[in-house]
Structure of Isoprenyl transferase:
Amino acid sequence: MSFLKTKESGEAQVDFDRLPRHVAIIMDGNGRWAKRRGLPRTAGHAAGAETFRSIATYCQKIGLEYLTVYAFSTENWKRPLEEVSAIVGLLKKYLLESIEKMEKDKIKLHFFGDLEPLPQELKDMCRKTSEISERYEGMQVNVCFNYGGRDEIVRAARHFAADCAAGGRKPKELTEVLFSEYLCSNGVPDPDLVIRPSGEVRISNFLLWQSAYAEFYFTDVLWPDFSKEELHRALAAYQGRSRRFGGV
Ligand code: FPP
């Protein structure tokens, strides 16, 4: 067993042989981080995108299999146009960098959410990066963009109903396993650990179906300040939990 003791907390002991397979993160607190520094909210998102890069790189290094991040929700369109454009711009920047570094990083990139409303160029880039990275064996990163848990479930139900109407499926065939195949997360194990920074203690329409038995970790740290030490605290907290999945 390999343990790590972080200096910062003096307590966060992580057993790297017992990592969760799938960690999901609600990247919250960018706006408040910027406000505290007298900066525009968009600067907070830019800092948040940097944190995402460094945490994803670290997760890949320690051998995590799946990392899912909430980058833009179906409700985030209500934000000022300038802020929405900035977040879309950060996704584009990340995709451009990913295409360049893919051969080296070997990260598999997937997108959860309805990409339809995005500009055609961006949709093409998402498709291209997913397709290229499909052959890689590294960690899978799922970027949730224009994602909402309820929207995902409704779209899956619509898709299943359409398959029934076309004669390919029968309503009585539907099971939890079959329904899961209609979700964005098809083929991805449910998240073991969901992390929400920034002090908010709610799920905000994130992975509603998939997080049925996830463990949650909340911290007051704002996302741009989220560090690998904070990740260690989350992992150590997870490893201290007793997961019973409804059993005893
Ligand atoms: C929530 O913080 C954060 C968002 C709605 C956007 C998250 C986006 C990024 C981190 C960057 C783009 C992503 C990629 C994949 C490069 P908030 O704005 O609600 O913060 P607040 O609660 O403090 O206002």
Notes: Residues 27-32, 45, 48-49, 52, 71-72, 76, 87, 90-91, 94, 143, 198 surround farnesyl diphosphate (CB under 6 Å). The chain has one domain: 20-147+189-238. The domain at 20-147+189-238 is CATH 3.40.1180.10 (Undecaprenyl pyrophosphate synthetase).
